[in-house]
Write the structure tokens for this entry.
Amino acid sequence: MLKEAASTTRDSTVNVKQLFDLTGRVAIVTGGSIGLGRQMAEGLAEMGADLVLCARKKERCHQAAEELQQLGVKAIALGCDVKNPDSIQEMVEATLSQFGRIDVLINNAGISWGAPVEEMRLEDWNKVIETNLTGTFLCAQAVGKVMIRQGRAENSAGKIINIASVAGLGGAPAELPAIGYHASKGGVISFTKDLACKWASHNIQVNAIAPGWFPTHMSNRVLEHHEELFLSHIPLRRFGNEHDLKGAAVFLASAASNYVTGHVLVVDGGQSAW
């Protein structure tokens, strides 16, 4: 039986290019207008996916959507507050109205707040947890309902990609007083693993990407003040660039990762390998 199955796999006509092809897929990227979200959205578009870019600042998404349309795909901009279930549901319904389906969700929207633990205000802690962790849950819940219905009708797999961080894998130096952010990303990692188990029966793969240090609007100030310190802890001796997350996002969004779920793909230049 095992030999027979292996033979069938070898004789398959599906090649690697087809496995990574996203033509006809519809992907939602929260926080997709700038930074890491914009980079991952571009990677998906380059492989043929149609896109929904959403963020609280809809105008930023409009500009990004117009730029990505130049790659020959459809891309729309929607406003969405990931802390608000009603706002998320409106985004999901608008996506279905425009495209009729949802195949990929990248939960990228996130914020950080820096303060010593003994001085951090509860309202600032809650703001980070609600955006980074609760927002990931709410978006996955709303989109997952759609993916489950699609699976029943078409036996179609859905892909959920949660953006965690190497900061969620362990502690951080005192120079990084962002305990709320680190805790939220640790929560995203645990949430990813558990949801992968819960929704495997629906043929929905749930994975996470844990980026290391990438220059973005959120990290630039920290990188400027501690560049040499951080680089000394990265074996590749550089920060992530504008292309380093594309491959990871495309892999986890495509059929190439159909047997991968509950995984945290670390993209950090070796930082977590020390």
Notes: The first strand starts at residue 26 and ends at 30. The domain at 19-269 is CATH 3.40.50.720 (Rossmann fold).
